[in-house]
Amino acid sequence: MTARMTTQQRLVLAIAVLGSFVAFLDGTVVNVALPAIARELGGGLTTQQWTVDAYLVTLGALILVAGAASDAYGRLLVLRIGLIGFGLASIAVAAAPSIELLVAARALQGVAGAFLVPSSLALITGTMDEPVRSRAIGIWTALTTGAMIVGPLLGGIIVDTASWRWVFLINVLPIGTALALLTRLDLRDERRPGAKIDWIGAALCTAGLGLAVLALIELPATAAGDPATVWLWIALVVGILLFAGFVLRQRTVEPLLPLDLFRSRTFSAGNLATLSIYAALSLNGFVVAVYLQQGAGRSATLAGLASLPTTILVIALSSRIGALSGRYGPRVFMTVGPLVMAVGCLLLLLVGEDFDYWRQVLPGMIVLGLGLAITVSPLTAAILGSSSHERSGIASAVNNAVARVAGLLAIASLAAIAGSALDLAGFHRAAWVTAVLLVVGAVVSAVGVRNPVGSAQAEAEEPPGP
Which of 37, 151, 354, 425 counts the most CB atoms within 10 A of its CB? Predict the structure, then answer.
């Protein structure tokens, strides 16, 4: 019998979806707008990388702070702050008169976005129990992942019919709706007394990621013998050291990243799989959206349409897959899904000089969508199910931080993978790298993820008693 949600639980789900929707949408809708932004404000591949990564640097670094804040000061309060901040930052991006100000506003968007995702998902995990929770996570996954993938289509239509600036203004409507629904929620905000936030750790994490990304983006674009090369290598080393210092600091009393969470084998393996899978997704989304415009000469709308089959499959299947994962356990889905996605990415090798979307791109996007639908909901449920309700906020924040950092590093490494320009050879190299990353995610899931006690698969695998 299908689990039913109460009216308040449905309201929680709607708020959680809207709160996460804008953050996920903005992370992908920008991809098809990149060529238009470059034409109006100037810059090449490096500028396009910074437009994406400025958002991901602050989002990935501060999402841990937001997760700790949602547990310490209340998920509803943190969510309200994130919604208001994201709306204001979106308006600033849309109004930016130069690429420098646009990148700065994108960084502010990332700060606000960090407060949205962990507090949104923590509302679900903190107010629902199984089997309702798995079904809700499945619905949340379908709609928010759909936002990640439908973003290029929506962005393409807006870029072609209006202006790239409107791409960032579409956030206002879901943000306003979420704030209105919050006033109808009859839920007491839970706070953990005596909690503190490690701002020094946050600074180490942000600076470390920022310097490392600076080096990864700028080094491939810097000529050999240029004095700036030395400084970029120094930035890379310092960034790595600062991030290592952040990890070491997490042994403090109130860490942003509680290392004891990783004592759970499923939590550790799930986050390692997340690193590979979301790096692949980010790289694929960026490369397909940009190459179809700059390499294949298609419009922004047609570039966005490339992801439509994937969107339909994710929305149609994720809720059902979430329910099956709750019954049989997530491991088999997290193993099979990335392998199917890898096949989809390899099918993109069919793309040639004589471009044909129907023969060369559509098959790969269909297979990719099927694999993504199989993967994302069980992955989210596995991560959150490996921690207690009381730590759901920080567990969600850690997993989302890993996913954003994965995308951040993948985009920052694009020039090293594809070269200084995204031509056909670079597109093919990116497809190979994406497929390898997905296979790694599948292997990690198969080896490391354990099904929860009580799932049908876990019971079937348990040896018989004496």
Answer: 151
| Residue in the block written with tokens 């804008």 | 22
Query: 294 is written with which tokens?
Result: 């700059």
Number of Cβ atoms within 10 Å of the Cβ of 295: 18
Domain ranges for the chain, please list them.
7-186+254-450, 198-253
Lowest-confidence pick of 97-106, 155-164, 246-255, 429-438: 246-255
**CATH 1.10.10.10 is right for the domain spanning 7-186+254-450:** no
Q: Express each pLDDT in 194-207 by its tens digit.
A: 667 778 888 888 88
> pLDDT digits over 344-354, tens only?
999 999 998 88
Task: Take residue 424 and report the two structure tokens written for it.
Answer: 């056909």
Helices (H), 95-222: 99-114, 117-127, 132-161, 166-169, 172-182, 199-218
pLDDT of residue 89: 93
pLDDT, one tens digit per residue, over 166-198 is 988 888 888 989 889 888 887 776 666 666 777
Contact 209, 217 (CB under 8 A): no
CA–CA dist 98, 332 (Å, integer): 48
Rounded Cα–Cα distance for residues 50 and 46 (Å): 6
Distant-in-sequence, close-in-space partners of 446: CB < 8 Å, separation ≥ 6: 331, 334, 335
- Which H/E stretch holds residue 69? helix 45-73
Tokens 């791409």 belong to 167
The reported pTM is 0.77
**What is the rounded CA–CA span in Å between residue 393 and residue 137?**
14
- The HSE-up count of residue 407 (CA atoms within 13 Å, CB side) is 29
